[in-house]
Amino acid sequence: MLAAVENKPVSVEAKPVLRVEGLKAYYQMNYFGVRREVRAVDDVSLTINRNEIYGIAGESSSGKSSLIKTIAGAITPPLRVVEGSVKFDFGGKELDVYAQRPAMKAARWKHLSYVMQGSMNVLNPVRKVKHAFRDFAFKHMGLSEGEFRARVESHLQRIGLDPRVLESYPHQLSGGMRQRLTIGLATVCEPEFIIADEPTTALDVLVQQDVLALIKGVQQRMGSSIIFVTHDMTVHAAIADRIGIVYAGRLVEEGSTLDVFQHPQHPYTAHLIASLPRIGDTRKRVALGGKPPNLADPPSGCRFHPRCPLAVDKCKSENPPLLARNSGRVACWRAGEVEAA
Amino acid sequence: MTALLELQDVNKDYRVGGFLDRSTLHAVKHVSFTLDAEKPEIFTVVGESGSGKTTTARMILGNETPTSGTLRFMGKDIAAVRTRKERLEFMSRVQPIFQNPFEAFNPLTTLDYYLFSTARRFLGLKDKAAVEAATDKSLQHVGLSLAEVRGRYSHELSGGQLQRIAVARALIPGPKLIVADEPVSMVDASLRMSIVNLFRELRDTLGVSIIYITHDLSTAYYISDRVIIMHKGDVVEAGRAEDVLGNPTHEYSRALRSAVLPPDPVVASAIIREKLRAI
Ligand SMILES: Nc1ncnc2c1ncn2[C@@H]1O[C@H](COP(=O)(O)OP(=O)(O)OP(=O)(O)O)[C@@H](O)[C@H]1O
Ligand SMILES: Nc1ncnc2c1ncn2[C@@H]1O[C@H](COP(=O)(O)OP(=O)(O)OP(=O)(O)O)[C@@H](O)[C@H]1O
Ligand code: SF4
Ligand SMILES: [Mg+2]
Ligand SMILES: [Mg+2]
Fold it and tell me: Which chain B residues are Cβ-neighbours of A206 within 8 angstroms?
């Protein structure tokens, strides 16, 4: 695998490592003859470059997990890909996730690792933690038993875990310890592509920084690419190179991290940035008015229009396309106006 | 003062390790504090991962017995709550909200079933319409409705939606005390604010006291009346929120406060790069 990477022609290097095109993934259910469709991922296109960290932000139930799950090829019914494609480029070889299922399976753990949301559950409750590391990582690392154990232990120590946790059962560990273990598991074999859903939600700020530094370190050493989801904007601020903002199943803004924080172009992004809590501030904050949209029956036109302070008539009927602007892309009929306001 | 909850020198030890290297882990050490029944408050527990917060919460909920020390709720030893009737009575007064909403609900059971059975069990409601009304009312408190939740399974909802359902469920019995273990860790900043504002409202209008376990110093600062900071099982700092969080004295609480990442990409990414260099 390493040899393949080294022999890559230079032109391949410039190709994005992940290409998502026109992706639609819906939860399609049938309750006693009544069809229900939740359009959780609705026409998302994005690319991720080698050696890049891409963060996905958005409110609760906007479809972040559904998107990343679909990218990871880890969907199960009722979630189905309705349209579009997800293609990886591992060492010059294209892998079309939904056209080449078996190849995708083989790529798991070797080229790619995926940490699900609330994934403390991947740890088998009746087996000691060390077995999970053996099962998932050992065969990909080409180390002897002793070297492997030493590598795992030093890896865990970097995120503040005592090597003795390997001898524990999951229920004997705290929530934050389990979350760190799953990150340790996903990064120890230093894959080319890491997909992580809310990897630091159960951690305090000190440990969170260790975990973020670990993730960043793996990425820098390996030149790997990372796509991660979190609603925690400070995590995006800390490690993302680019950010994609998801609203109601759609990508509404994308740009360099600096631009998204300093010059948000979409009214929803602007709200997100403005409402960030800052320590020492006890003002009662205003939540975004209105309800989060129902993805089974999303608003017409721009899905943000019922809550948007800038909405005009056109917004109700026509969906704004995601168009290039500044360092990124924005989907809003009045893109950029919010900044002036 | 009448005590709502009183912890006196509470300790919890676990036996850990294999047959050869068995040792004792002191998960919670000498923890004492009292909540006043007449003055509902938001009592926040902050502390690093593994410092004993969840273990303390589990003891307050009667899910775990202390190795030594006593916990009393409205004057009654929680360890002495034994019979089914006593347990039901206790649980209608003290309600939990757990850390991971994905673990809190069985994926094979519909969420409305959980809510309905809570209403039947604790409110003694039999009539279907009354059960549904009580359920809908508490869902409305958290910005949801029965219509949105009916017939759905936990895996059909996002983390934030699930957590709000967990809050709604805890509200149904009309508790005096809610023990919320990281109730906002899964939700976004705006919902986070709506949940903590909800806690304030519960305190001020329904007189509910809340034990709020969190890693999130900004919401802790924002809603807490009092705060304790735990470190390796010990309470290392306790007092009014402004004092403890505004002017921390213990090394850990100081580190915690100064480590808060600002929502600013220039500063935050520099901190992580610095950390990386240090390794
Ligand atoms: N298995 C499922 N069946 C039906 N609907 C689902 C299922 N899983 C998720 N959904 C719905 O899809 C939408 C998007 O959910 P998703 O979990 O992707 O949100 P999210 O952005 O990750 O939210 P959070 O930040 O709260 O985790 C939500 O409306 C959710 O209720
Ligand atoms: N059943 C158990 N058996 C053995 N050890 C346990 C058990 N439950 C908890 N522990 C240990 O007790 C300590 C405290 O755990 P606890 O879950 O209370 O931490 P916490 O403060 O809630 O941490 P987090 O913020 O990560 O959730 C940890 O070292 C944990 O490994
Ligand atoms: S398109 Fe219209 S409704 Fe949508 S964000 Fe822009 S201004 Fe607001
Ligand atoms: Mg999610
Ligand atoms: Mg805990």
Answer: 48, 255-256, 259
Q: Give the sheet arrangement for strand A328-330, strand by strand.
A: A112-115, A193-197, A225-229, A53-57, A242-247, A250-256, A328-330, A323-325
Domain boundaries, chain A: 16-240, 267-337
Q: What are the angstrom distances between the C-alpha of B22 and each of A174, A257, A320, B18?
A: 19, 49, 63, 6
pLDDT band at residue B39 using 50, 70 and 90 as cut-offs: very high
Give the CA-trace dihedral at B259, B263, B269, B272, to 10 degrees. 20
Amino acid letter for position B94: V
How confident is the model at residue A326, as a pLDDT? 86
The partner residue sitting opposite A167, judged by closest CB among B18, B185, B268, is B18
Architecture of the domain delimited by A16-240? 3-Layer(aba) Sandwich (3.40)
CB A311 less than 6 A from any atom of ligand 3? yes
Q: Contact at 8 Å (CB) between A49 and A16?
A: yes
Does the CB of B251 have a partner CB in chain A at under 8 Å?
no
State the pLDDT at residue A336: 87
Mutational pocket test of ligand 1: of A34, A36, A62, A119, the residue with most ligand atoms within 8 Å of the beta carbon? A62
Query: Can you tell me the distance from the alpha carbon of A30 to that of A137, in angstroms, rounded to the nearest whole number?
Result: 39
Closest CA to A190 of A112, A107, A95, A91: A112
Task: Tell me the chain A residues in contact with residue B266 when contact means C-beta distances shorter than 8 Å.
Answer: 258
The pick from A245, A271, A333, A337 for probing ligand 3's pocket by mutation, whose C-beta has the most ligand atoms within 8 angstroms, reads A333
- Indicate the pTM of the whole model: 0.88
Q: At which residue do the structure tokens 């904050």 appear?
A: A285
Domain B3-259 has CATH 3.40.190.10: no
Closest alpha carbon within chain B to A211 = B272
Helix, coil or strand: residue A318: coil
Q: What is the mean pLDDT of chain B?
A: 89
Name the residue at shortest CA distance from atom 7 of ligand 1.
B156
* Residues of A in Cβ contact (< 8 Å) with B150: none
Instruction: Give the pLDDT score at A11.
Output: 41
pLDDT at A269: 94
B270 touching A (Cβ < 8 Å): no
DSSP state of B78: G
